[in-house]
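[09:14] KT: can someone run the structure on this one? pasting the chain below
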Amino acid sequence: MNMVKRVVGALVVCGLVAGIAVGSMSGQGRGRGQFPGGTNEDGSLRPTRPVTGLFTQDAYTEYEILEPGSESFRIRYLPETTRAGATEIVNATRGGSEGSGIEVYDPRTGNPIKFTYVVEDADTHAIHAPLPIPVPEGGIGRVLIYKTYKDPRTYMMNGDDIVWVRSLSGYRLGVLLPKGFAFLSSNVAAQMSTTESGQLRLAFANPSGQSNPVTIHAKKTTATFEPTTYTDMFFDDIKTLYDLGAPEGRTFSVEQTYSDYRKGETAKLDSLAYLALNDLKVVDLDTAKVLTPSRQGADMSVPLDVPIVNDRQSVHLRLTGTVNDGTYRVVNGELTFSRTLHGLRNTVLLPEGWDVASVSQSGTIGRTAQGRAFVSLINLNGENQYAVTIRAKR
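[09:31] RB: done, structure tokens below
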């Protein structure tokens, strides 16, 4: 798994969207067009490089559209970096957007972080958010950022109706309407729900990780919307890597990372209900500390050094182990991985020398720098589980 961890870490940093930088990567990616490969003089598209990223959508962004006429929206943003030794995360303001009301927190403790807001010119501003500790080897640095943007190009009025248009890239996303407004239209497929405060909300992901222009029209309404119980599966940052070992062994390694926001002094390891992991190891990614699981009845949990007591806190965990349960096998020279997968993001990494022959669900095909083929799947359905069969030949 060490090779896989290095690949994932490098790709998370390299996959940052335009205007977002981590650590010393400040400014990387600015000025890119909407299509990553760019365009030729005749308007035709240039090809992008082959897909090498095992996962996308590591950052989550929520946009709360504020009162009509304000031209403003409140952003909740959860960026992270895997670069060992990094001491800060830099979040650049998009050109033309006026930033204010900035707050930065440590997601582990919920405590505020002192930050600097650097204004270089009218279109270049950046939040420099120091990490609580330098990113430890094998850990992940993260911060929670709140900020308000005023941008009349994004948020405008058509009479009494709201129009909100923005190009969103590479994120897991949420958009909230002001209370008292209902959707007229939205051009993206999204889960819609009502919050406890009675606001209508869209939740969605952009599977390509590329530019995704979103336009929302909303109108005033006298209707009262009751809160719905849908879980925002796109806020859930769980991602699971299935690293298929030598075919004759029929064993694969699993690496799963996720955040848990449930209040308490322990974190329940729910995924062990569908992942019977041998050689289980649990790591607190904020500190790279190995946690010792304990059994409580039929459940397994780990103790938390910092109990979760408010909504700004979470624990960031990595579970690793191996599985040998018959879902991975080779018959008559054909490799088959057939399993019910859980959560939003799952990637299956094939053994060296095998090529993908078929995938039963929609997925992105790519290869690592070492030449190993992989299939990345993003579950856009409300159900938390779905059956997947992947076949490969050598």
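[09:33] KT: thanks! The chain is about 5% helix and 50% strand.
[09:34] RB: yep, looked fine to me
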